[in-house]
């Protein structure tokens, strides 16, 4: 089930907010529909929102082209709307990364504006294809952490799978490869409150594919670890800073603390587009705060008193000390992360 399809005319997004009960697609010909879909988590997961935004820029360019004005006017309108897209979610760096990459192409372009639309589309296609390849490589590199191991049991949090990327997923990419190799015994998926990406998406994705999966509430992770059910944790990431601090779905930090307490390796799987080489540490990562209703209600039904104060950060930051290794397409990064991430940035792993 592909989360994102570009057919040359429109961007078709699988509405993940309705999964697993309803499989519905949104046909976007207006980039504003993509902004709404990103904000409402109809399309979600760091790499997937980067790919969706890249295609949305084709829609922006097409709209701008229909307006009267000089090349400069059109360029300004394009950049203005690209910024609106970029602000649709603040934590996942892949969104800003994909938009910046296309903006650079547009700004370097010489000639009439209509000519640039084709090159935006080509770049969006390249970003999507690249993401597929990155997922494959991350999966393969992840296998090196489990050499000779059989019957591996992995805990994952949120959804860093095919629904969150253009390919087989990052964390779930490694899990898929382990399964294909006959090394995986079972995946334990945290349900991931408040929006249930683990229950609705990860368990859906893996269950459909016949990969053994056990769903647990977030509060059951400690029990599962204490009982000796878990051999390793693998999660995705929304942004990784140059010291190896990792922003990921709220609750990930807690899982990392638990993993440390039980001497279980905690792995993060992410492509280079998830690294923010401009930030020194996780305190600089903007954390998205979301609506109270996500916590106070479930499927439109109140589960808390009306008006109660709510804390609803969408992400937390796991300090690098708790991260055993980071699995990238270029290889597995080990501490000292300042050194290994700098090598990744220079492409000399
Ligand atoms: O709020 P979401 O569902 O977009 O959060 C997604 C995550 O936290 C994922 O783990 C992360 O984006 C990596 S997806 C490969």
TrEMBL record:
Pathway(s) it belongs to: Amino-acid biosynthesis; L-methionine biosynthesis via salvage pathway; L-methionine from S-methyl-5-thio-alpha-D-ribose 1-phosphate: step 1/6
Parts forming coiled coils: none
Site residues by UniProt (Transition state stabilizer): 158
Keyword Isomerase: yes
SUPFAM superfamilies in the cross-refs: NagB/RpiA/CoA transferase-like
An example Gene Ontology biological process: L-methionine salvage from methylthioadenosine
Role of this protein: Catalyzes the interconversion of methylthioribose-1-phosphate (MTR-1-P) into methylthioribulose-1-phosphate (MTRu-1-P).
Family to which the UniProt record says this protein belongs: Belongs to the EIF-2B alpha/beta/delta subunits family. MtnA subfamily.
Protein name: Methylthioribose-1-phosphate isomerase
Encoding gene, per UniProt annotation: mtnA
